[in-house]
Amino acid sequence: MSEARLREQICSFGASLHQRGLTAGSSGNISVRTDDGWLLTPTNSSLGTLDPARLSKLDWNGKLLAGDPPSKEAFLHRAMYDERKGAGAIVHLHSTHSAAVSCMSGLDHHSCIPPLTPYFVMKIGQLPLIPYHRPGDPNLGDAIRGLAGKHSAVLLANHGPVVSGNTLESAVYAIEELEETAKLFLLLQGHNPRVLTEEQIAELKAVFKL
For residue 154, which phi and psi values (nearest 5 degrees)? Predict the structure, then answer.
């Protein structure tokens, strides 16, 4: 896909996420790998009003090549790309239900949302919890590197989800599925939900080549 088309796609998906309340104000950021670097939404920009020409373009050392100054969480995206060479795009949101789960105590840090549905297993798998770091803390990048090689998505404590995908479309669909599962997880608190068994998860992995 051409860079021009990728720029348009970032703006289109950003507007869709914003219009549906999955990101508010200037929160959240989107990035996409290109042939000669990567594109990232600019700092203090709303995903609902992105301009294709003003997206930040960076090299793999983090140097700004063109566009507006990048999100201060650029290092978060770079850490995920470093560990996931097949990742074509990354979406990070402060979506309400996922962020709410990230604020809960007593979560299983290895998999903080249980396998409630086959769709969660297929698009997310396990969701490890990254311990709390202040916004912009470069140590967060190191924490992500420790898990991103084995997981396409992580949940930042008291913050929100970071999800990678082969394409921007797949990353967006995955983070939307995560948000819906987080909503289910919160609705089911205190209700002793039935989760998928290891055998059912193994069947999904075999059938869908996960």
Answer: -135, 160
Q: Is 119 a catalytic residue?
A: yes
pLDDT in tens, the chain (210 residues): 899 999 999 999 999 999 999 999 999 999 999 999 999 999 999 999 999 999 999 999 999 999 999 999 999 999 999 999 999 999 999 999 999 999 999 999 999 999 999 999 999 999 999 999 998 898 999 999 989 999 999 999 999 999 999 999 999 999 999 999 999 999 999 999 999 999 999 999 999 999
CATH number at residue 136: 3.40.225.10
Q: What CA–CA distance (Å, rounded) separates 82 from 9?
A: 23
Tokens of 83: 């560990």
Q: Domain total for the chain?
A: 1
Tokens of 170: 């797949």
For 176, the domain range is 3-207
> Which pair of tokens denotes residue 193?
């939900």
| Identified catalytic residue from 81, 119, 132, 173 | 119
